[in-house]
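Problem statement: downstream parser choked on a complex file, so we are re-checking the raw output for the flavin-adenine dinucleotide run. The parser issue turned out to be on our end (a line-ending mismatch), but while we're here, posting the original submission so the record is complete.
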Amino acid sequence: MNFEFTKEEKEFQEEVCEFIKKESTPEMLKETEDQGEIFGGPEGRKIIKKIAAKGWLTPTWPKEYGGLDASEVVSYMIREEMGYNGLPFGFVAAHMSGPTIIRFGSEEMKKAWLPRISSGEVEFALGYTEPQAGSDLSALKLRAEDKGDHFLLNGNKLFNTSCHIADYHWLAVRTDFDVPKPYKGISMMIVDLKSPGITISPLITMAGWRTNEVVYEDVRVPKENLVGEVNKGFYYLMAALDFERMFPLGIFRRLFDEIVAYAKETIIDGKPLSKKPLIRQKLAQLSIEIEVTRLLYYQLAHILDKGGIPNYQSSMEKTFATELTQRITNVGMDILGLYGQLKEDSKWAQLKGKVERYYLTSVVQTIVAGTSEIQRNIIAQRGLGLPR
Ligand SMILES: Cc1cc2nc3c(=O)[nH]c(=O)nc-3n(C[C@H](O)[C@H](O)[C@H](O)COP(=O)(O)OP(=O)(O)OC[C@H]3O[C@@H](n4cnc5c(N)ncnc54)[C@H](O)[C@@H]3O)c2cc1C
């Protein structure tokens, strides 16, 4: 087994990196930071359209839908470079909904949506969580009534990030309230976020970026926007979650590299920080864990390349990677000391205040897309075969 990239792959990685550096603007980098690394703002859209034109937004998709028919490892390399170099790396339409449509959508739906997604023209927002349904999504209640040629939607969603900048809602709704097993009454649909009757209100996270509460009041959704079959939405949602749980570490790997450079360059008591045994131990430990994350991601890529959908393996990678983001930022705080708590606008801030910002951002990583407790339940049940 070869864990190295081939010469061609390395050249490709270099090309992606150069392209991103050339096309990135300070405005785009600032917008990405302010938005919490999600995609949909005006600056992000400009660069993503250029990346998409090269087929790099959806490289694994079939050519007819705007992909390159490339392997998941190629996709991983691109996503890593994007995150590492400050581009948005959370794409709902390209990385979660699109692959689900490819597997479960009708031919009409594929033709209608996949080219628009792969060209970077549209972005979706994830619409799963409700006030009473988070870890247990089968409890969701947003009602979609069948009105003949359309569905009529009423209900509330909570923590739906991106709704204020995305174009469409990738929405889980209840189409049957009477089934004995609640998950069998859920359907998925794509909803235009500008539809009359939708109200989007901000919820600001401790890291400063925005998520949303979304209220639906008598919102009409055309029948053709139903994904797959009615009442089968829970299966599609679960598959989309497996894709969402593939977590490239790029942005935090960049922070780690910057912390290592800081330890080398910063002199305290006449010696560089990098000579202190405790700091060396901590950094070396993190480098092991970053490598482990990379290998866990390769495993997901391998499963996908063989035609499968990674399941408990995604939960493993997501848990390890997102908990690692917290270990990286904790070590950053330890090494920078009180400087670590300063925001970018302080004249004493080090590393442009990144440690403070990423420290706060890393908290949410072990909550979104299913908490670490839920991931461990999945690993115990589906990976180890333990009872529910
Ligand atoms: C900033 C932010 C952005 C988000 N963005 C989105 C988004 O874009 N779209 C979207 O749909 N959702 C989004 N979410 C929602 C997120 O997916 C949920 O918050 C998460 O799944 C947990 O659900 P909950 O908040 O209802 O907590 P709960 O489900 O109430 O859980 C509370 C606690 O109980 C634990 N727990 C629950 N059940 C079990 C169990 N069976 N075993 C062990 N422990 C358990 C949990 O681990 C957690 O610690 C976002 C959340 C946040 C905070």
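For whoever reads this later: The CA atoms of residues 1 and 298 lie 12 Å apart.
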